Amino acid sequence: VSDVLQIVQGTCPPPFPKVPPSSLSFKNDYTSEFYIRVAYRDSVGITRDVGEVCAKYGLSINSMLQNPIKNRNDAQFVIVTELCQLSQVKLAAAEIEGFDWCKGETFFMPVLSK
Length: 114
Prior knowledge:
Shape: elongated
Number of strands: 5
Structural class: alpha+beta
Radius of gyration: 22 Å
Largest sheet: 5 strands, antiparallel
Strand content: 25-35%
C-alpha cells in the first residue's frame, strides 16, 4: 500500500537508480549451429538458390534434409548449419523468403548441442 501512496504523492524513487556505463551496449547476436526450415513450391534450382544465399552470408551447411515430396505446391526442407552468427541466419532467411518458390516465413532456431 505504501508503494501506491508514494506513486500518488509523486515521491516514488526511480525504479533503476543506477545508470549503466556508457561503454555498455546490448548486442542480440550469438554464435550457434542453426536449424532452418523452409516451406516451398517445388521447382528446379531451389538447392542452387539456397546454396548461393548461404555462401553469400558465410553460412556453411552441415546437412540438408528433404523428405519425399507428396504435394509439389506445399513441401518443406531443413538445413542445419555449422557454427555461425544469428545475424547471418537472419539475413539469409530474409533473402530466401524473397524467392518466388518460398512459401511464407523461414523458421530458424539455434541447435543446442554438446
